[in-house]
Amino acid sequence: MAAFVFGLVLLNVFVAQGSFQLAELREQVADQERQYRQMRYEVAKSESPERVAEMASRLGLVVPAEQEYILGRPRTLVPETGEPEEPADANMKALLEGP
Amino acid sequence: MSTATLGAGSRLIGGRVSGRRVSRLNRPSFRLMLMLILLATGLVAISARMVFIQVVSADRFTSLAAEQRERRIDLAPQRGAILDRAGNELAISLDHNTVIANPRQVPDKPAAAAALAPLLGASAAEIEQKLNTDRGFVYVARKVGTDVGAQVASLNIPGVSLVDESKRFYPSGSLAAHIVGFVGLDNEGLGGLESAHDGLLTGKPGFVFMERDPKGRAIAAGKFIERPPAPGHDIVLAIDREIQYAAEAALAKGIKDYGAKAGTVIVMNPENGDILAIANQPTFDPNSFAEFKSDQRRNRALVDVYEPGSANKVITAAAALEAGVVGPSTMMKVPDNYRIADKVFHDSHPHPVLNLSFAEVIQQSSNIGTIKVGLKLGKERLYEYMEKFGYGKPTGLDFPGESGGILPKTDKWWDTSMGTIPIGQGVAVTPMQIMGVFATVANDGLAVQPQLVKGVIDEEGKRKPAGTPASRKVIEPETARTLTEILVGVTESKNGTGKAAAVPGYKVAGKTGTAQKPNPKGGYEGYIGSFIGYAPAEDAKLVVGVMLDDPTPIWGGVSAAPVFKEVMQFSLRHLGIGPGSVLPPEGAPLPAPDRSGGAAPDPSKGAPVNPGTAD
Which residues of A are less than 8 Å from B226 in CB distance? Predict the structure, then answer.
């Protein structure tokens, strides 16, 4: 009987300890979630286009004024001899050879 | 007479020891009896008190104990974030501390105020005034940072404590401010999508009901009922953060370069209706929205209406081509003026009678040529197509305050209306509505419902897409393609009015606009310069619209077109959309890009001769 009562008391002690731990863990989870959201905010702020543009400008980078495109035809596959074929297109040849 | 033997030589007779009287108090039996009575009285009193406490007043003390022990804590839900299409945060909530006080428990109010003032950034007098009240609860400072909260807590001022409250932040400042909107002090949506989707973003509050010990910890074996809060959904927008920034930067530059009062830029995908950017100037920072006027917070792209001017010629042209009234090569004589009823309408500049094809009429934005075609079309068909293209009703974005524009029914038209409406005066549209017209032509005649919200992310992290937007056929694909070829001429042909909008390497289809602004007091005053176009014209992926309020010069082809070019060029590059140009035949010289910048109307000719669309 005494052992039963003792056991019951012990069980209650463990349950009480467990509930304190649970409360503590919940607080830790909430704290981690708060930190996570704070970090998301910091990342978003760091990546904001205005900040990136400002830093790029400080580094001397500029937005290109014009973009050039090379309109080319698909080249013939290099044959097994290893010698590339001459481009049939005179304009393409001029482009490859440069000014 | 009682006797008792007391011992040798003495006798108790009648309460006296022989020879002397014995006090009753000294008698053992009496003292015993007295003790018994006292004990019994005490026992009865205690019993009575126990009965009173445990039986008579049982309910009262049970509830007092419960009140002391039980506590319900309301749990506020976390407001959902607003993200761009790539998941970048445009709006996010963070936990902050709110400093509260029970003034009745603050012993030294002046000292408390003096200690709190430097931490909270308020004057000691202001804080002391809040504490000098008989109420049991006051806010001392709402939503201060957790670092400030920690400093306040370390002061250990009796009666002053902290509670958690979340605060809304917009990490990119004014980026997409008009779309995202802003919230009030209690996190209620007050504008933009924060307001339109307040229910989705807010979530549902929860609570915890528990029995706690004197230290505030939950009692293990006690009552514990928890309903966790349901956090708000995250909303994913169709907006592309980088394109949004580019649009805002280009618009700000355009307003500065051309001295405009205000402006709007919209970028959208005509195939799926995604709105990639809406930029408005003037703008505001939603982190401190109260410091800005309502004029700056207005989403002009959706709320403001304006007479579209020459941009509306696209509808007249689409209707005329679809109805078979004209073809692109149909030739017509175009004078520089034309009378309808009692009014004479003019082209933007005097010229002799020209022999122009219909395509040239549109490319050179001739008012008279368009009016003549409109007359052939007739007002009923013109009205029908304006309605089909979406005039007269909101676009369906469900944005707060969105306007449906003004499209008067034909029985309300004046005798002179066929001289104004075909060229875009006498009707009013929002910038988004006119964008829809061009998006429809770009998409082979199919109008797709524009959309700002791509989907939501629920509390479990699952993404739920918004669903396929509705679409409807407005004109035949052949008509759309024919019109596109004509509109390419606006940016590429020798006399095209929109050459400044050309993007090297791409075929750009578009239309300039220089529309008079109605004066609320009557008549017209000022101009809206615009350019709306799409690229690559062969298979349009993007539509961009630029409207500038009172630019100098007024011509859309000079002021709005360069802004269009900048935004379109960036967007095409950012999305990796190649030129899509058809290669020239074998052996033919490669096309040289036109770097002439376009032939702008001669400023020495001054303002347009007569009221009417000046483009």
Answer: none
pLDDT score, position A80 = 55
* 10-residue averages of pLDDT along chain B (615 residues): 44 49 73 93 94 90 84 86 96 92 90 93 92 88 90 92 91 96 94 95 89 73 83 95 97 97 97 97 96 94 94 96 95 94 92 95 95 96 97 92 94 94 94 97 97 93 91 96 96 93 94 89 90 96 97 95 96 88 47 41 38 41
CA–CA separation, B562 and B250 (whole Å): 9
Both tokens of residue B535? Answer: 């690229």
**Residue B391: which region, alpha, beta or left (left: phi > 0; alpha: psi -120 to 50)?**
beta
Nearest to B531 by CA among B438, B443, B469: B438
Q: Give the residue from B374, B360, B357, B365 showing the smallest Cα distance to B311.
A: B365
Whole-angstrom distance, CA of residue B254 vs CA of residue B251? 5
Look at residue B25 in the predicted model and tell me its pLDDT: 66
* Alpha-carbon torsion, ordered B113, B114, B115, B121, to 10 deg: 80
Ramachandran bin of B173, using left for φ above 0, alpha for ψ from -120 to 50, beta for the remaining angles: left
The maximal CA–CA distance of chain A, rounded, in angstroms, is 106
Which helix or strand (DSSP H or E) is residue B16 part of? strand B16-17
Letter for the amino acid at A53?
A
Residue B581's region, left for phi above 0, alpha for psi from -120 to 50, else beta, is beta
Task: Give the strand pairing for B10-13 and B138-144.
Answer: unpaired
Q: Is the CB of A49 less than 8 angstroms away from the CB of B175?
A: yes
In this prediction the pTM is: 0.81
d(CA B612, CA B480) in angstroms, rounded, equals 27
Rounded distance, CA B200 to CA B211, Å?
33
CA B209 to chain centre: 36
Distance, in Å, from the CA atom of B152 to the CA atom of B33, rounded to the nearest integer, reads: 65
Give φ, ψ of B339 to 5 degrees: -100, 135
Q: Which residues of B touch A89 (CB under 8 A)?
A: 586-587
Residues 2-61 of chain A with CB under 8 A from chain B are 12, 15-16, 18-20, 23, 34, 37-38, 40-41, 43-45, 47-50, 53
B549 within 8 A of B528, measured Cβ to Cβ:
yes
Nearest residue to B565 via CA among B519, B497, B500, B485: B500
Closest CB from B92, B221, B241 relative to A40: B92
pLDDT at residue B519, as a whole number: 82
Q: How many residue pairs from chains A and B have C-beta atoms closer than 8 A?
A: 84
Pick from B554, B605, B531: nearest CA to B308: B531
ipTM: 0.72
Q: Cα–Cα–Cα angle for B515, B516, B517, nearest 5°?
A: 115
Q: Which residues of chain A have pLDDT under 50?
A: none
Measure CA B417 to chain center: 38
Q: Within 13 Å and on the Cβ side, how many CA atoms surround A82?
A: 0
